[in-house]
């Protein structure tokens, strides 16, 4: 971790001026996020699900009665100051894409239709070999090589900043899940990475070019998908060098969010686990992309890591050794964005007696993800102003597979993640950490 991340940052600069939020990918999540922000700023909706807009933070002792809203405690960009920039290989504007995604009702979209029609995707850096199931990819950049394409994204960023008058920017990857790529020698140093871009190396996926462009332009990068994207030494070193916060990977929305609530509860009570079977059906474009085994492999790796890290079978072999963990995603078009997940959890209690928990979660993927895009953008912008750079572990709260320093186990327990997030805000603002010891009330 860099020095500036360890020490208390000097009071973060206030959020004055406009903030440009860039989304590579203008699909279900991005349009639900953009439409939501616009509805909230017109007073038509409430930003439910967003910590940055709705949560409070306790400061000092419980008897002090200080619990301001987070957005009043730290200087976050105001929703009115947000402007949007997006790229997508599909040429639909945000209105067409939102209608097509089928997440929001027509009655929620129509009052803001003109606004959404004004958000047109810039031509994307896209290659179907990394996302095989996208058809209609006509809005695509061409260039001399991958480095040239990355330079074109940088130019887009500068143009949006200039034309909108934005003083700061943040990028959140809301594009499709790319095929699985393991980091290789091309990803170890920035020199090797830049050379690989020039040589059009296959190991350089489009999302890496967006991440590189963002970092080079000095804007934080957040990765909502499980793609490798910015999770390797070359780009992480670059982020430190440029003073840019990065975080990822893969929004923690439906089943995995549930896992990181239930599993810590089982472990807290020292109850054992024999197996956890998760399956779900969804019918949106994301589901279609994940129907391709290569994209699913990326997602599966991200989903499987959670239970093992929380339950620590190596520390508690009698409880968790060799538990079975199966994750299935099935593309089922009639369901659209309204995913249905089933979890069967085989647990064991006192004297080894078996019990079962069944969860049937009828969720809406993009409704859960949209407020995370907002929070990640606002908190990453705040982190940048607070002098934070490189991996932002305190934003693990939002991710299925949190990026951490090399050799460090990620923290998956949702409530530890929440404490970490709030304590980081307290720390950056010079407030005392809350330890929950509480002995002072009994002396
Ligand atoms: N909704 C959730 O709960 C959730 C949770 C975790 C992760 N995610 C991830 O978020 C991402 C977005 O999900 P979604 O439901 O909006 O999917 P979507 O298919 O509706 O939208 C993704 C968009 O990205 C575009 N795209 C693909 N490659 C691109 C590129 N190289 N540059 C720019 N755009 C590109 C596609 O054309 C598409 O319009 C997916 O990777 C998904 O796995 C979603």
Automatic annotation (TrEMBL):
It comes from the Bacteria. Residues 254-366 form the Myo-inositol-1-phosphate synthase GAPDH-like domain. Pfam families: Inos-1-P_synth, NAD_binding_5. SUPFAM superfamilies: Glyceraldehyde-3-phosphate dehydrogenase-like, C-terminal domain, NAD(P)-binding Rossmann-fold domains. Signal peptide: none annotated. One of its GO terms (molecular function) is inositol-3-phosphate synthase activity. GO terms for biological process: inositol biosynthetic process; phospholipid biosynthetic process. Gene3D superfamilies: Dihydrodipicolinate Reductase, domain 2, NAD(P)-binding Rossmann-like Domain. Belongs to the myo-inositol 1-phosphate synthase family. This is Inositol-3-phosphate synthase. The lineage of its organism: Bacteria, Pseudomonadati, Gemmatimonadota, Gemmatimonadia, Gemmatimonadales.
């Amino acid at each position: 971790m860099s020095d500036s991340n360890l020490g208390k940052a000097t009071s973060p600069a206030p959020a004055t001026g406009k903030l440009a939020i860039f989304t590579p990918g203008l699909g279900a999540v991005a349009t639900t996020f953009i439409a939501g922000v616009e509805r909230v700023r017109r007073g038509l909706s409430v930003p439910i699900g967003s910590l940055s807009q709705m949560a409070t933070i306790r400061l000092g002792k419980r008897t002090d009665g200080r619990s301001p809203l987070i957005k009043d405690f730290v200087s976050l960009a105001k929703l009115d100051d947000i402007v949007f920039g997006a790229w997508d290989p599909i040429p639909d504007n945000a209105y067409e894409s939102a209608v097509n995604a089928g997440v929001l009702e027509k009655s929620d979209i129509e009052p803001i239709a003109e606004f959404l029609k004004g958000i047109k995707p810039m031509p994307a850096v896209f290659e179907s070999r990394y996302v095989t199931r996208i058809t209609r990819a006509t809005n695509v950049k061409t260039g001399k090589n991958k480095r040239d394409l990355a330079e074109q994204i940088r130019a887009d960023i500068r143009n949006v900043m200039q034309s909108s008058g934005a003083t700061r920017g943040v990028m959140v990857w809301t594009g499709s899940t790319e095929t699985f790529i393991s980091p290789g020698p091309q990803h170890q140093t920035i020199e090797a990475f830049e050379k690989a871009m020039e040589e059009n190396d296959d190991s350089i996926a489009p999302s890496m070019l967006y991440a590189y462009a963002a970092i080079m332009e000095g804007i934080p990068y957040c990765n909502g998908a499980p793609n490798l994207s910015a999770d390797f030494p070359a780009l992480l070193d670059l982020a430190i060098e440029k003073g840019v916060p990065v975080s990822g990977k893969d929004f923690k929305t439906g089943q995995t969010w549930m896992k990181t609530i239930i599993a810590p509860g089982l472990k807290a009570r020292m109850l054992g686990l024999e197996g956890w079977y998760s399956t779900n059906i969804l019918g949106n474009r994301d589901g279609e992309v994940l129907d391709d085994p290569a994209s699913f492999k990326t997602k599966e790796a991200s989903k499987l890591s959670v239970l093992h890290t929380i339950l620590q079978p190596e520390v508690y072999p009698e409880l968790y050794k060799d538990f079975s963990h199966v994750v299935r995603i099935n593309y089922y078009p009639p369901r659209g964005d309204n995913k249905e997940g089933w979890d069967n959890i085989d647990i064991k209690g006192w004297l080894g007696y078996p019990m079962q928990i069944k969860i049937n979660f009828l969720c809406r993927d993009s409704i859960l993800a949209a407020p995370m895009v907002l929070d990640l953008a606002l908190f990453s912008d705040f982190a940048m102003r607070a002098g934070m750079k490189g991996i932002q572990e305190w934003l693990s709260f939002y991710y299925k597979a949190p990026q951490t320093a090399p050799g460090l186990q990620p923290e998956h327990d949702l409530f530890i993640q929440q404490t970490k997030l709030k304590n980081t805000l307290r720390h950056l603002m010079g407030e005392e950490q809350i330890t929950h010891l509480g002995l002072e009330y009994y002396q």
